[in-house]
């Protein structure tokens, strides 16, 4: 079978993944109040510039899922290029309509493409890892149904936790009142949020000190170690806060955590919700070991 793997742009795909001829991406976008559009990209300089603008923007831009014509064009291209099997890994269906949109388009191609649309129940490097794993499994000779089953397992077993630096960005997005955000910032309270098993975003805890936050990071990783042994990669994604993400990495290393790390930006679409300074930790299980993922 000739297999393609598609993700949406919030996956922050690595250079290694982007270079794979069987890998494709659907772009989300953002619209600022001034009328200009940002395409969701994974270029570091573009993302840095976006976060600088976001810091000073009076209201957050509106995010948009991939346009339907973009999805149709890509499926037409895959048919023309001789693909017969497609895996599409999307941002959590609980927080985005991308999953449903791709399902709708895929139904129009069911006589030409065997399409598996997988709800990642997460975002960012979790999706990137799933895409890597799908391509590795296809190369290793797994059947389509086996790959789909393993990807569903990865979606269920992966974990994402994010600490928000400035609560005003949650307030701007309508998820908290301005008064609550102000009080929280004054008291130094930061919500540690996570993607629950159904892919919805929930509050895991509220932390006031770096010590208590780092204790959570360590416990999360130690729990994954007990569960997966050495077959996982740690992701650290940030909202233009590389220094803070690296500090978490070095703390974990000092605590004896000797695992590969994948570090990089949260794309603009994700940054709208987490804001500048957000830092996320992800647990990415591996079906086929792929520690090169952490080297990009």
From TrEMBL:
Keyword list, A-Z: Lipid-binding
Signal peptide bounds: none
Gene Ontology terms, MF aspect: lipid binding
InterPro entries: DegV, DegV_C, DegV_domain_contain
Annotated Gene3D superfamilies: 3.30.1180.10, 3.40.50.10170
UniProt function note: May bind long-chain fatty acids, such as palmitate, and may play a role in lipid transport or fatty acid metabolism.
Protein name per UniProt: EDD domain protein, DegV family
Organism: Eremococcus coleocola ACS-139-V-Col8
């Amino acid at each position: 079978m000739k297999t393609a793997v598609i993700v949406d742009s919030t996956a922050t795909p690595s250079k290694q993944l982007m270079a794979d001829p069987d890998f494709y991406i659907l772009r989300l976008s953002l619209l600022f109040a001034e009328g200009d559009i940002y395409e969701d990209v994974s270029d570091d300089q573009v993302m840095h510039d976006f976060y600088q603008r976001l810091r000073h923007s009076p209201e957050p831009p509106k995010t948009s899922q991939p346009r339907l014509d973009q999805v149709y064009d890509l499926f037409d291209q895959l048919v023309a290029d001789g693909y017969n099997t497609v895996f599409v890994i999307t941002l959590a269906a609980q927080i985005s309509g991308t999953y449903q949109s791709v399902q709708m388009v895929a139904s129009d191609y069911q006589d030409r493409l065997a399409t598996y649309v997988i709800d990642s129940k997460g975002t960012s490097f979790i999706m990137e890892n799933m895409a890597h794993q799908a391509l590795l499994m296809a190369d290793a000779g797994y059947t389509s149904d086996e790959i789909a089953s393993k990807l569903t397992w990865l979606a269920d077993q992966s974990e994402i936790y994010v600490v928000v630096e400035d609560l005003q960005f949650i307030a701007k997005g309508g998820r908290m009142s301005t008064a609550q955000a102000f009080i929280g910032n004054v008291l130094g309270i930061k919500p540690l949020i996570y993607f629950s098993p159904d892919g919805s975003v929930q509050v895991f805890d509220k932390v006031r000190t770096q010590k208590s936050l780092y204790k959570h990071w360590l416990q999360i990783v130690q729990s994954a170690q007990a569960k997966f042994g050495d077959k996982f990669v740690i992701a650290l994604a940030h909202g233009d806060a590389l220094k803070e993400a690296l500090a978490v990495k070095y703390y974990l290393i000092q605590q004896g955590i000797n695992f590969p790390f994948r570090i990089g930006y949260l794309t603009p679409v994700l940054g709208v919700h987490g804001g500048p300074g957000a830092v996320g930790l992800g647990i990415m299980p591996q079906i086929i070991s792929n520690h090169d993922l952490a080297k990009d």
